[in-house]
Amino acid sequence: MAEQPEKHESASELLADWRSAERATIAARAAARIATLALAAAEAAEEAANAVEVAASSAAEAVDAARAAASRARKAAAEAAEAAQLAFASAEGDEARAVVDVQKAEASETAARDAYHKAEDQGFPKD
Question: What is the mean pLDDT of the segment spanning 76-100?
């Protein structure tokens, strides 16, 4: 038997196959670009998630530091209030003693003035 030559497809079939392969190549390239963009988006999302995690951790540390500072401020305010109460009580005592000292000084002044006037009335003693 003689070999029959291989049957070739028609030009229109070959062109259709070529155009179909071309469309498949374009679609594959588009899918590859989309996959690259999706990978970049995923990497950006991961970086953003890491940044959010760092920020949340920093915020938690700041809250803890603020809480500790508020506690120290509350203690300092209580101590200042106690010191103010002691100072007020001491000032009240100082005021009471000052009133007594003024009364004593006025009494001494009155006694000295009266003694001067009495001596003046009696003509002052002659030494």
Answer: 91
